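User: My instructor asked us to take a sequence, write out its structure as tokens, and then describe one feature of it. I'm not sure where to start. Here is the sequence I was given:
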Amino acid sequence: MKKLIAILLTAMMVLTLTAVAPARMASADDPYADLKPVELIGADSTGKGAAGQIFGEYVAKRVEEITGGKLTIDYHPNGDLGGDADLLRQAQAGDIAIVVCQTAPVVSFIPEMAVFDLPMVFSKYDGDKIDAVLNGENDFNTAISAAFEKADLHLLGFLQNATYRLTTANRNLETLADFAGMQIRTMENKNHMAFWSAIGAEPTPLAWAEVYIALQQGTIDAEENAADTCVGANFQEVQKYLACTNHILYCNQICINKDIYADLAPAYQDALNQAVAEALAYMRPQLAQIDLDNKQILVNGGMTLIEYEAEFYDAILNLDAVKALYADIDNNQVNGLGTLLVDALSH
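Assistant: Let's start with the prediction itself. The structure tokens for your sequence are:
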């Protein structure tokens, strides 16, 4: 009887060890094995098929793949959860976690983001140099990241590849003098408007839904946007010229609610950061190609492409009114962040 009990006890121990062995092995090899599943909500309000949407969805895809489905992002593109301001407010409140959007709407929540309003500050640099400044380890990145934290957000990265907002117009804009008196639709951004005024144009804020008809009817002469946005709006139907003014960098930021990020297990934080880094590497070559392709679509639609030499940008940057705008943004709006940005780009 004792021998039988001993045999049964031995068998039970073997079965128990066999049962727990795979779990121990999985835990050793998989940093997510012992973590509870987490779902984050992410969103953008970009146009369908725009770079911001592709970027955000790729981050969501990679996070799920990296963590084996333990960390997921329920991603809502194309304004499904609201416009940029709505999404940023929801992210600050923690109602959603992640927001992808261009830099301009963030200024209302993080005043320091007005540094991206410095006209033509990036225009003479390539994508690699700009990426090293925006996403690398330097004083500028440290300062802008701190500004996000102060606004209860955590900066995850900037997506760009030296593509820009361009100008479409019904007049030939070959020289600086050609901009004089041109009525151009802009976003309702005081720095953008001040720039156009500084070079002699007449900026006119206008609701996006009204822009096409206003251009068609000649109520305004021009508008400014990235090439893919111009294609999405079919501006080749109502505009004659596509001028590469390169006045504002076409840049998307991705951020997450600060507390939600802090509450994530370190392994999940690492996975999210890895996914963003991989999405940036995946998207950057595409951005350049998307820009070229969309410019070609606009040209094929009948628009004339105007490109400028470096002297054109230098002439604008040397205008007294533009220098005054730089000083105002740097000294009064971004606490010297403009100086940090210019220094980082020039080194």
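For the description part of your assignment, you could build on this observation: The longest strand covers residues 241-249. Try explaining in your own words what that tells you about the chain.
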